[in-house]
Q: What sequence folds into this?
């Protein structure tokens, strides 16, 4: 059975004092929920966040990692470093990493393998650009992203994968995919995984939607049968908004 997940991606926001304050508020206000709740603060605040949430069910996850075990990669962070502070889940392939930091499908495939080798859980992000959707290439683009980064994995590896479909045109723009557009793509993703593997792999993987999810639209999006939760950017920065989104699932 796939799990419901609501994850907050804080991107390059909040210093350590603000991180602690919001996480303390969030954990105090956390509603009773079956969903897994995760927050991804920036690197320097990860260890502090783990301490702040020591007795909370909220999981602290990382926004990125390097594929190498260690070595001369100035500014980078390895899987072992994350595991060393009890961070066991990592976001890989966010569209901002692809767009601003040149992360290609090939690099992302290496990162996924590196994380899985360390038994980490991977939240893999992908999604089409506006021009892909306008030219009706969105299904092809998404299929290619999945194929290039994930379809060489063994079926057994998929128990450690969470997918986050994030159409680039909906990220931070205030423009959300309609619940129908999200459902249509999520169903397509499950069909594609069924063809590459089998129905059991496809039905057991959680597929989150991301892109301008807010308290006002979360319930409708999460209500769709193939949407298993959300990866939330802007609205996860405010505890009350994130709590309202968690309550919608
Ligand atoms: P947004 O970001 O909710 O601010 O659109 C989503 C994301 O980038 O994961």
A:
């Amino acid at each position: 059975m796939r799990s419901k997940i609501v994850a907050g991606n804080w991107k390059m926001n909040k210093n350590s004092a603000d991180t602690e304050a919001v996480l303390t508020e969030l954990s105090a206000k956390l509603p009773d929920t079956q969903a897994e709740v995760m927050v991804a603060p920036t690197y320097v605040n990860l260890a502090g966040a783990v301490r702040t949430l020591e007795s909370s069910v909220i999981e602290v996850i990382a926004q990125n990692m390097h594929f190498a075990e260690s070595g001369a990669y100035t500014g980078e962070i390895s899987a072992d470093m994350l595991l060393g502070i009890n961070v066991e889940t990592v976001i890989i392939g966010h569209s901002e990493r692809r767009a601003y930091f040149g992360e290609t499908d090939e690099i992302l495939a290496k990162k996924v393998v590196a994380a899985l080798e360390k038994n980490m859980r991977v939240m893999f992000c992908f999604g089409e650009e506006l021009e892909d959707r306008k030219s009706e290439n969105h299904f092809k683009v998404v299929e290619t992203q999945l194929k290039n980064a994930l379809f060489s994995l063994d079926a057994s590896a998929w128990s450690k994968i969470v997918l986050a479909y994030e159409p680039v045109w909906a990220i931070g723009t205030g423009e959300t995919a309609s619940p129908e557009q999200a459902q249509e793509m999520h169903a397509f993703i499950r069909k594609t995984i069924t063809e590459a593997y089998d129905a059991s792999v496809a039905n057991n993987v959680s597929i989150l939607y991301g892109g301008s999810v807010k308290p006002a639209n979360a319930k409708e999006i999460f209500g769709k049968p193939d949407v298993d939760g959300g990866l939330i950017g802007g609205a996860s920065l405010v505890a009350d908004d994130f709590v309202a989104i968690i309550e919608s699932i």
Strands lie at 5-9, 36-40, 59-60, 89-92, 121-126, 161-165, 207-210, 229-232. The chain has a mean pLDDT of 97.
